[in-house]
Amino acid sequence: MYPMDLKQIIATVQDDFQAVDHEVLRMLDSRVPLIEKIAEYIISSGGKRLRPLIVLLVAKASGYQGNKHIKLATLIEFIHTATLLHDDVVDTSDLRRGRPTANAKWGNAPSVLVGDFLYSRAFENLVHVGDMDIMATISKATSIIAEGEVLQLINVGKPETTEEDYLKVIHGKTATLFEASSLGASFLGGTNPELQDSMQIYGLELGMAFQIIDDVLDYIGNADELGKNVGDDLAEGKPTLPLIKAMEFGSPEQRSLIADAISNANRDHLEPIVSAVRDSGALEYCIELAETKSKNAIRHLMVMPASIYRDCLESIAHIAVQRKN
């Protein structure tokens, strides 16, 4: 039966998923029309909403019967959206999910400030959840996410970045919010330390796998499916894992070419660099690493009782490494 597709997974929590949509719209209410306009633009831009979906599924799989998981899922989506707004400004991106970024349409200053608004609204919702363990988890996560973004910024233009450096970055900037989603939701289901530890690892490993594949897709996807241009990370001088491993596995000439492109943040020699990444075995290495992390995530689901919700969480771990966009 695995993996179920995303539509099938959402169908298992359809009412809750729609409740999150309603809560998102309610929480976007502002006296400043531009805030609503920008926030609605990016939130409605076609994202998968995997993180709030994970919240709903973990809560259900843990036996939770209340409705605080709706607020938790909503605030997770707000934090994620805030990071996207800030990321696009930092990266000077002009395309996300096939549409112009908010900063491309309205400018950097409004994008940063609306991101701040979403962060604030997320913590406003967190107060209403009213669980100190969840509050500690989300508060810590936002700090780690910021650290991950700064680490990535430090590594820009540095071809000497190692795989360990890269993993630290994606742990912070991507995997931490997945981890907070699954761990936070597990607290709603009661006091089961084994379950909570397992859900923390599930989210972390899932998030790591998701980001590794995201970076792989930068070299094997197409712009229409990805909503961004192939080689965008290279143009920003980001030493992602496919580039790091291509320098390790490739010829001296390929290593020099990639290192120069990272140092100067350019796509002038994109075609031979993409060929080097594809031919060196770098992508196969990255995919294998992502699959290992996905399998570890699935293994940690086994502490949960069997249910359709656990099946859905397992399917999400498969989707994370099999997706094309």
Automatic annotation (TrEMBL):
GO terms for biological process: isoprenoid biosynthetic process. It comes from the Bacteria. Its cofactor is Mg(2+). Pfam families: polyprenyl_synt. Transmembrane segments: none annotated. Keywords: Magnesium, Metal-binding, Transferase. One of its GO terms (molecular function) is metal ion binding. Its EC number is 2.5.1.90. It is an enzyme of class 2 (transferase). It catalyses: 5 isopentenyl diphosphate + (2E,6E)-farnesyl diphosphate = all-trans-octaprenyl diphosphate + 5 diphosphate. Supplies octaprenyl diphosphate, the precursor for the side chain of the isoprenoid quinones ubiquinone and menaquinone. Belongs to the FPP/GGPP synthase family. This is Octaprenyl diphosphate synthase.
